[in-house]
Design brief:
390 residues; 15 helices
């Protein structure tokens, strides 16, 4: 499945934050490792069957290769992947994309003699996107992400508006996927346009989604003026000396460093971004030099999560030598059903504070009408260089 999937993404989809074939392959392997580790931790798991591995592989494929593309790309990628999963010769022969792949990949058709098993979505859900489903390896079946974690949410009466995070199918799957990578000591990079919930999602995981007895965190923001020295000093100031030349968080803890606006630092004369190159040095060599003493300092028990918007508008494309260390997830704008769910929960919470039933009855029409106006404004009143905001 990987060769036609990566061919399809590179040829027929838009990838807002470019990634290479090998980066996608590494992301797939890392995520598959996380899924297999989670399965083997099950008390009832004695051995892993081929059917379970196949299903987990498809799940990892969707959220590695298919996680980097935009909204329209996901729609066509979903159809292509489900077609490959069915492995119906008559259906495949009608696909222009598949024919082009086979033409450019001699010997591929001969290498798949049998039908892939165990990865079909329930017939009642066949019109849904595979992105909306999670593979339950224990029971070898596909289930909707909303069954992995319930979306019911009650806002506390004394909650501040800024603290409200209403769960949606997007937050459920992002929380779960990022949690798996963090717990297995892998780095993650979330990308997406402004308003897609990148920073909120990561900060929520760091504050409430991780065991405080096992994890600490460092949160920092990059800007166009951020220097390598500033980034190094901030991280060094939060770490403790373990022994000579070795620094890290408190013993028994693992530190997750979250960097927001990762691609904002300005490029220097030769095209490099010094803060990025410093972080890449840790990725490649597990440390950096103390600038005062010029002594190498090893940093242990830390890992990174980055968040950034796609290149453009002052944000640059960071080097692939750094990108290769991350699993990349492209966050999409919220769908209409998610938007209506979020604002319905919030407005019902607000109107529940002493408003009459007549006022409460207009909550749902108000939300639907507001979302409709927002979509029309977004489609018609596009930003321009002179007016970059609405």
């Amino acid at each position: 499945l990987f060769p036609p999937a990566i061919f399809f993404v590179e040829k027929f989809c838009v990838v807002p934050t470019p990634v290479t074939t090998m980066e996608c392959c590494n992301s797939l392997i890392r995520l598959l490792e996380c899924l297999l580790v989670a399965l083997t931790r099950e008390e009832s798991c004695v051995s892993v069957a081929n059917k379970q591995i196949e299903g987990l592989f498809v799940l990892a494929l969707v959220w590695s290769v298919g996680a980097t593309i935009d909204e329209k790309g996901r729609e066509v990628f979903n159809k292509f992947i489900q077609m490959l999963m069915r492995n119906n010769y008559d259906e495949l022969s009608l696909s222009r994309e598949y024919d082009e792949f086979v033409l450019k990949t001699p010997g591929y058709k001969e290498s798949i003699p049998c039908k892939i098993s165990g990865i079909f979505i329930d017939p009642d859900e066949i019109n849904c996107s595979i992105y909306d489903f999670f593979f339950d390896a224990k029971n070898t079946r596909w289930i909707h992400w909303t069954k992995v974690s319930k979306l019911e949410y009650t806002i506390p009466d004394n909650a501040s508006f800024q603290s409200i995070v209403v769960p949606t199918i997007d937050t459920v799957r992002h929380d779960w996927l990022l949690g798996q990578l963090i717990s297995n000591n892998f780095n993650a990079l979330v990308t997406g346009n402004t308003g897609t919930g990148k920073s909120v999602t990561v900060k929520k995981i760091l504050k409430t989604g991780l065991d405080a007895t096992k994890y600490s965190n460092i949160i920092m923001n990059f800007s166009a003026r951020t220097t390598a020295s500033q980034a190094q000093d901030l991280i060094d100031s939060k770490l403790l000396k373990r022994r000579k030349g070795v620094f890290g968080p408190e013993v028994g803890l693992r530190c997750v460093v979250f960097i927001d606006d990762l691609n904002m630092p300005a490029k220097e004369e030769y095209g490099a971004q010094p803060p990025i190159e410093l972080l890449r040095q840790w990725m490649d060599h597990a440390g950096w030099y103390n600038r005062k003493e010029n002594v190498y300092r090893q940093l242990v028990d830390i890992q990174f999560i980055g968040a950034m918007a796609p290149p453009g508008g002052g944000r640059t494309q960071i080097t692939q030598r750094y990108m290769r260390h991350f699993n990349v997830f492209n966050f999409l704008p919220f769908r209409n059903d998610s938007l209506e769910h979020v604002f319905s929960v919030i407005i019902n919470w607000f109107l529940g504070k002493g408003f009459s039933d007549d006022v409460k009855d207009v909550a749902q029409p108000l939300v639907s009408g507001t979302v409709n106006v927002y979509n029309k404004v977004s489609a018609a009143l596009l930003p321009t260089p002179a007016k970059s905001h609405y």
